[in-house]
Amino acid sequence: MSAHRWTRLCVRSFLSNSVTASLAPFARKRVSEIGRFDLTRRCCYKGCRGEDLLRNEAVQRHLQRLLGEYRSVSSSLQSEAVSDSERRLLNRRLVELSSVADTFQSCERALKELAEVEAHLQSTTDGETEDRQMMELLRDEQHEIEKRIKKLNRKLVQTLVPSDAQDDSSVILEVAAGRTTGGDICQQFTREIFDMYQGFASYKDWDFEVFSYASSDYGGLHHAAVRITGEDVYRWLKFEGGTHRVQRIPEVGLSSRMQRIHTGTMTVIVLPDPSDVDIAIDPKDLRIDTFRSRGAGGQSVNTTDSAVRIVHLPTGTVAECQQSRSQLQNRDAAMRVLKARLYQNTLGRQVEERHTARKQQVGTRSQSERIRTYHFSQDRVTDHRIGYVTRDIKEFMSGGELLEDLVLELQEHAETEALLELVKNTTESDNADGGHA
Asked: What residues does the Prokaryotic-type class I peptide chain release factors domain cover (predicted)?
């Protein structure tokens, strides 16, 4: 145990009037008695959710390969025989490997501290007299270290997984009511989902810019498109794309008269904003239409043709905006949405497994493609991709901590799948190279 931690425990114990003779065996305990950790012990501790992943032999070999490469690159940089061009490449690779090595070393230090605390705790339990106050302090210390190890394990997995180049991008987010099921319940649910993401943007301190908002009767929503900017927006929202299902007794609308549980769907589309990417679009490939904004009537209806619809003729992709009274602003917003859709469709062709491709997210908007169900009568939200269940729908749909917790679970699941796929491909490549050799 470090001198700082030991002093802190002693001071806390003294302030609690519990400094007893049982401190003596702690002071005589030597770190060397703890023993050497094996790789599994270094990577995880009992009860950690990432334990099974980090115990995976292929993952361990991959980790050891990277650590070995880190040591090799560090050693090569010490050589004077390395040319300037080689040194630049080695430095670049060293930076890439440093996060893995640093996190692994932090895990080792934390696990060493945990072993020391557990040894002291065991000696206290085995003694003839128990210092309950000191045991309580040691247990508190143990829990703090275990929490830190859990975070470090998660970080270690993240460093082993190649990052998504789009993670720090802003997003174009669209919500659309289901076409075939649920009637007005779909439109009401779409408005609630829109409000949920607006609340989440506020919770994460992001900017939320509305491009279009087509409302419906009874306070519902047909379709809306927004631009969300801030820190790592795409990383947090990319798993929200897909079909969301609702089961509830409608509170308003024609369906509310039947007083039975109805089922409806809506779709969320999440596209990385390609504002930093130059997408060439030939003006000849565009058809631009203007029309009057649709509204609820009265003063809310625009009396000029300020709404803009842009059609990309070669692909049939359509984007429109009617949020502003300025035709120029609506045209710029519609063009941004169109570029985002074209950019994402391009990525979808290049990388088939990308879940945020527009066609994969929209599909037929049927219930069979659902990613999440919101069951209001049972006060339950279920994410079908990972089997995650949470209660308190009202709190969840406020877009705060409960939604953040679910997204964290989805991120961890995706990182696990990506790491296993990576080590599988690496192993197959090594086996192929060995066969050719």
From this structure: 292-308
